[in-house]
Amino acid sequence: MDKFVIRGGNPLLGTVRISGAKNAALPAMAAALLTEEPVILENIPQVRDIETERKLLSAMGAEVELGYGRAQHRTTICCRDLVNPEASYELVKTMRASTLVLGPLVARMKSARVSLPGGCAIGARPIDLHIKGLEKLGAKITQEHGYIQASAERLKGARIVFEKITVTGTEDLLMAATLAEGETVLENCAREPEVVDLAVLLNKMGAQVEGAGTQTIRVHGVEKLHGARHRIIPDLIEAGTFIIAGALTGGDLTVTSCDPIHLDALLTKLEDCGVTVHRNGESVRIVGNGPLKCADIITEEYPGFPTDMQAQYMALATQANGTSIITENIFENRFMHALELVRMGANVRIEGSRAVVRGRTALSGAAVQASDLRASASLVIAALVADGETIIDRVYHIDRGYEHIEEKLKGVGAQIRRIGELLPRRMTAPAVAS
Ligand code: EPZ
């Protein structure tokens, strides 16, 4: 298993280019199931979850062609000859977003067999709202042997009110509704930029979707969708992660190929912390000048402060003067990184859904363990300001969603290297229950 070895102390200086959004690319790839014609997707990040989705689609009989050379971020997917409308447990257990194929498969193939995802390191994360929504659209759903079996001759438009805002739930039902008979109205929808990006792609494929980015999405079902070419939006969480790293290290970092509007909740918070932020077209420059001030955050659905930035923000809060209260409202168990930050010298106390972070405490390098994608990013950020060397175990989590993170960090001055071999016993991280 790969590890990162990071020596702290260097400010991040220079420019880093942001990749395409993993969480927009995954539903876009699933949307290719809705048509027999090829869908060409550009700006696809080279991360592990994309490879998992490629395997998932290929196992169903889709042709997934990956670009190479200058076209290495382009993927062409053709789902003409689907043979096996199934998402196996083997794949779903490694990536919950695999359940995004449920809606498109029932809508086009009339049936789907998708494994239930099971447990997760950040919360229960059920998919009941996907299932209830598909039932409203007329699908017959049964559950056995850990799989959901869904079928429908043709889905029928309906009014669906989400009891809770769900990102992939909105995306799944949005895709299903494009081929349903008549009009579907989705209410209390997620407004994330990734949902909007999916709607843009679906409309390019011939769908009739209105209102994405608001709480109500209307979909007028059509008989058939066709192929399209689409460029995936920049990854707002990758951008935010580098921005926090730049601010925390007291650097002068410009993050390019991003959308500052998508980052507004984070950038405004960083300004409260005393960081200088320049928003400029498709880039953000941040200058970490002087001591950081503490500021509380509450995670919320977009356009609120994203849960996917909470762990990284906690690393920053450990270095701010004063007490920051971090309230996690989206997932019930998303504080695993706190325990590892404490091992590095942070003062963090967990009280239910709140973390109380008292700063500023000096951090010192230690052997730590990544528990999920964003928790890993938090540890990398903390390591950049820790005294001495930090060894982060289980970096396969970070490889799921950050493209070449160590290369990008090295390019702006960080001392980071990846090692694959076993370390001497005294340096290995202790096991953590999860
Ligand atoms: C998406 O997950 C993202 N994943 C997550 O990114 C992100 O953390 C999350 O949205 C919240 O922003 C992708 O886009 C692929 P939800 P998703 O359904 O859609 C509850 C990352 O690090 N809920 O919006 O699975 C759920 O338990 C990640 O990149 C139900 O109760 O999240 C949670 O409390 C991880 N029933 C809340 O809703 C359902 O049927 C929001 O979850 C669905 C969700």
Which range does the strand content fall in?
Answer: 25-35%
Radius of gyration: 22 Å
Q: Biggest β-sheet, characterized?
A: 5 strands, mixed
Give start-end ranges of low-pLDDT stretches: 422-434
What is the number of helical segments per DSSP (H or I, 4+ residues)? 14
Account of the 3D structure:
The protein is of the alpha/beta class. It is 30% helix and 25% strand. The protein contains 14 helices and 25 strands. The chain has helices at residues 22-31, 48-59, 89-92, 102-109, 128-136, 167-178, 193-204, 236-248, 264-272, 310-317, 336-343, 373-385, 396-399, 405-411, and strands spanning 3-7, 13-17, 39-42, 63-66, 75-78, 86-87, 111-115, 140-144, 147-151, 159-161, 183-187, 208-210, 217-220, 228-231, 252-256, 276-280, 283-287, 292-293, 297-298, 320-327, 347-351, 354-359, 367-369, 389-393, 415-419. Strand 10, helix 6 (167-178) and strand 11 (183-187) form a beta-alpha-beta unit. Helix 1 packs parallel to helix 2 (48-59). The longest helix is centred in the middle third of the chain and has 13 residues, at 236-248. Residues 422-434 have low confidence and may be disordered. The site of ligand EPZ has 26 residues, from helix 1, helix 5, helix 6 and helix 12.
Task: Give the key terms.
alpha/beta; disordered C terminus; 14 helices; binds ligand EPZ; five-stranded mixed sheet; single chain; 30% helix
Blueprint of the fold:
Layout: E1 3-7, E2 13-17, H1 22-31, E3 39-42, H2 48-59, E4 63-66, E5 75-78, E6 86-87, H3 89-92, H4 102-109, E7 111-115, H5 128-136, E8 140-144, E9 147-151, E10 159-161, H6 167-178, E11 183-187, H7 193-204, E12 208-210, E13 217-220, E14 228-231, H8 236-248, E15 252-256, H9 264-272, E16 276-280, E17 283-287, E18 292-293, E19 297-298, H10 310-317, E20 320-327, H11 336-343, E21 347-351, E22 354-359, E23 367-369, H12 373-385, E24 389-393, H13 396-399, H14 405-411, E25 415-419
Parallel strand pairs: 2-15, 3-14, 6-7, 10-11, 18-20, 19-20, 23-24
Antiparallel strand pairs: 1-24, 1-25, 3-5, 4-5, 7-9, 8-9, 11-13, 12-13, 15-17, 16-17, 20-22, 21-22
Helix pairs in contact: 1-2, 1-7, 4-6, 5-6, 6-7, 8-10, 8-12, 10-12, 11-12
The protein binds ligand EPZ.
